[in-house]
Amino acid sequence: MSSANALLERLDCFVVVEPNFVWTELHFLFSFQNAGDKENMLNILNVLDELLSAGTDRRIHHMISKGGSEALLTALVNSARSFTPNYTILLPLLHLLAKVGYRDRQIGLKAQKADAVLVVLGLLRQNTENSRRAAACLWVLRVFCSSVTTANLLGKNRGLDVVFKLISPHSTKHLRTVKAAVDAFAAMLRSKVNCRTAVAKGYIADLLKLYEDWHNNDVNLKNIPIRRALLHCLQCAANSAVGRDALVTEGGISLLFQTTQTCLTMKGLESLVEPAIQLMRKCNPKVPLPLTSDKSVFSFPLPGQPVDDWDADLGLYDDSLEDDSDEDAENEEPDNRDYEDDLETDVNKLRPQPEPDRTLEQLGQYVRLCPELHHDFQDLDSSSEVDESSDDDSTLEGDLNDETQSDQRGSDLPSDRDEHHLHTSDFHKHYLNCSRRGQKGHSSMVDRLLEKYGICIPNHDPRLYAATAANTKSIAGYSILAFPDFWGHLPPQEQEPMAKRPQHVQRKKVFEDIQRLICPEDIINKVIFDMDDHSPQCTPDMCPSSLHFFSKFESGNLRKAIQIRSHEYDLILNADVNSSAFCQWFYFEVSGMVAGVPYRFNIINCEKGNSQYNYGMQPVLYSVRDALEGRPHWVRTGSEISLHIYSHILHSAFSFYTLTFTVMFHHDDDVCYLAYHYPYTYTTLQTHLKMLEKSVDPQKVFFRQQNLCDTLAGNSCSLVTITACPTSRAWKHLHQLRNRPCVVLTARVHPGESNASWVLKGTLEFLCSSDPVAESLREAYIFKIIPMLNPDGVINGNNRCSLTAEDLNRQWLMPDPNLSPTIYHTKGFLYYLNSIGRTPLVFCDYHGHSRKKNVFLYGCSMKETLWQSGSPINTASLKEDPGYRTLAKTLDRIAPAFSFNNCNYLVEKSRASTARVVVWREIGVLRSYTMESTYNGCNQGIYKGLQTGTRELEEMGMKFSQSLLTLRRNAIHYNSRLIHHASALLDLDDRLLDHKSNNFFEDDEPPCMEEIEYSSCSDPFGANELDTEVNGNTSSEEEDEEDADICRDGKQRNNRKSHLVPHYLKQDALETLTIKSGQCNGSNGYLY
Ligand SMILES: [Zn+2]
């Protein structure tokens, strides 16, 4: 004892002064200890246990780093191999090893190296009848299995059988050992080989029976840890395909379903519900999307490229991908990668370099796009009414006249009854078929509708819409108009709050999904609508008890609708043209409903997770009945909204998300439209531009719509010029006009971002208005606006791309004139402005953001980017005009939806080919922005907690225009009116607010309230749980045959306290330690 005490004394002091020495010393002792020197050994273990239990995990990690695990393993092997293993030493050693090993990631490999794996398995074999020893061995084996090769080694040596035998049916005895066995078994199932063995030996079926047994007999809820461990074990098995199959064939899903339903009715069983749900989701057999091909229904032959072999690749479901490891990984959002790495640090790439990518001659073609510079403004003097109509449209009047003179055929009109019972077919056959303009009946229908319901939506005219639609070229040759686009929309009076998310929505939905599998008799599974199938679809007569779907209209993109249950439908979106991806936007018509019934819709092939749908955003709904009754509103709708990874749809490349929501319609047999966001079609834009042009006073407002270029599908990409006409033709006035700086605005490069169009609508309307600030703006600037950079995408219901299946906002570096004409010519036009010395003062590209709230700007700053990226370049020596921040600061004050704190001026490598970065760097526009508008709503300002409507989006567009005035306050000295407006409007002081940019890639939302854990098999228990169990093993109230005489201490202990060594042996050591720690240091025993 004395030598041990001496050692302890030394050790204890060294803990403080020379911790490294302690471990060296211990290692030495363990390695060369005499197996017979029991007393020394116990004392050492005792010291270790005390040391490791007292502090934080850092001590254990320090010990591990100093070879502590190896020392323990060596000691264990030496002790166990002696002729008569001494369990007084082995037991504490095993306990310590479990605690330390749990925190040592390499423990499995170290154990193999020390030959400890099979030694412990041998000990377990010898002690299956001794529950305490068995438990100690099981913990160590479990810890060893952190390495799959160790797990394999155990499997090869029939470890599964040994361990499984220790998992008993429900019992009141040896609970700790049973749990240790379940945990060890689960750990061994980390190896796929072991999984296969376990399945082959029927262990999965047995585990299910065991789970059921413990579930049924655990009346007093005393065995929740074991039940949870059994679930975890099943989860580990479910990580392999063979395990999942076994679980399904053995009836695992219905067992879990039923047991979980019981758990939900009892308090205190919450911890069993979540793992059971995960397990059910995981095992729900995967099937491909119910499509023959996931490629878009639409293909479009691209110039200079061979026609895609459309049938070649039907590979929705690739067997080779049924790999064990492909499970449930959440879609890798590109935005989640390490943001700092993405920041541009090459100063040359950050420095604006206006060098055209084409010759001056090539730029000559854009002269025509600056008519205001060459216009002679003769009408200012003559007051003649020279037609200044746009380049490309003079047939409009004729069209409308045709319509109004076509004959009135009362027989085509719906009867009075029909006017109150709208049928989808009425619209399609009569009202809204734009291709039937020439035929009798059509225009009269429109007229009658308008006569009867006469609506007045500002800057909208249904007849003009119908006429304009005839010129819109879609791939499918759409001839039918969606009613909301035709009829128009007014924002509802009331602002709409964000939806409350009820508790456990996802859970409820998963249960419903699981029921599809276990109650197949309830499943209808009937295709109601299919874009691929041209045979007559489910008409109201054929399917009287189904909803009816339709989306063969501009921006519509429903591909298939399948009735699942009487009031539940799976919906599949069409992929972007020429692609098999990018689904998120949706727009379709639904009819045949019964009022007040909750219908569940599942859009099962969404590609983005973490959208605002989990944070209060709702889809939008338009009711034709409501519209005809004087409420032509898109309104937010839907309850029980959830966007989650769908359990059973398999995709070759990623997980699909399902957007699920429930809608209760207000009227029977209404015709309604549902959309991702307020639709804004290409035809809407063209109609709007015509209305605007007619609305302005040509004597005062120079408004010109021109064709920038044709799109691939032959639609016109419009460029609008707005500025004030000069007061007179006097040189001074013309000179002032021609020297106004340019502001270039673009929008809707991403077709799914219809919010961008509504914001731009606000901008356009304001700029054309008679508001004095608008007048000032027109006098201050020449506005060049390209309202829709991607008409083809918008028309054909794409979400992200153009017809080339590429993101047009990634084409700006080298836009191809044939494949990306709108980008090629927008860039060319900007070069042209640059070449004539009229580099825009501001460029802004309007977008929508699906994962953030508020409206905000992304800009470009070299200094901020270098600074944020941690670049060694001294940014102090670099010059940069801080003016890029002015607009955001102004907007923060005047635009309620705008949030300065969401703005960001960093230049990312991955964004090098976007409009914002290219216009900044190549065209040299200091104020080059992307303006992002939320689809959802705001979390600040007066709109906090509200979803944005079109009113707020349009207001944002107006405020953006107004903010531009601040940039000209000091420039125009001779226009006092303008200065007055600017100051009155903005009431600004010039102090630069020193806000720091935010990293816009950081997650803007906290994890969803009930986020389902998608990761495959994390250890749900943690070190503390194991510690507690191990500690309990030395002071168990359970019977213990051999050590029954040892003093028992039945009190519940804190798991930090040391318990490894029997109490009577501890006394000396404890006393020594207490004294020593007082002597050595007096305060605390820091190891570092
Ligand atoms: Zn966008």
UniProtKB/TrEMBL annotation:
It catalyses: (L-glutamyl)(n+1)-gamma-L-glutamyl-L-glutamyl-[protein] + H2O = (L-glutamyl)(n)-gamma-L-glutamyl-L-glutamyl-[protein] + L-glutamate; C-terminal L-alpha-aminoacyl-L-glutamyl-L-glutamyl-[tubulin] + H2O = C-terminal L-alpha-aminoacyl-L-glutamyl-[tubulin] + L-glutamate. Pfam families: Pepdidase_M14_N, Peptidase_M14, TPR_CCP1_N. Keywords: Carboxypeptidase, Cytoplasm, Hydrolase, Metal-binding, Metalloprotease, Protease, Zinc. Residues 346-359, 414-424 have a biased composition (Basic and acidic residues). Belongs to the peptidase M14 family. It comes from the Eukaryota. Residues 678-968 form the Peptidase M14 domain. The active site is at E932 (proton donor/acceptor). Residues 309-359, 380-424, 1023-1045 are annotated as: Disordered. It is an enzyme of class 3 (hydrolase). It is found in: Cytoplasm, Cytosol. Its EC number is 3.4.17.24. The keyword Oxidoreductase does not apply. GO terms for biological process: proteolysis. Its cofactor is Zn(2+). One of its GO terms (molecular function) is metallocarboxypeptidase activity. Its main location: cytoplasm. Residues 319-345, 382-405 have a biased composition (Acidic residues). SUPFAM superfamilies: ARM repeat, Zn-dependent exopeptidases. One of its GO terms (cellular component) is cytosol. It comes from Cyprinus carpio carpio. This is tubulin-glutamate carboxypeptidase.
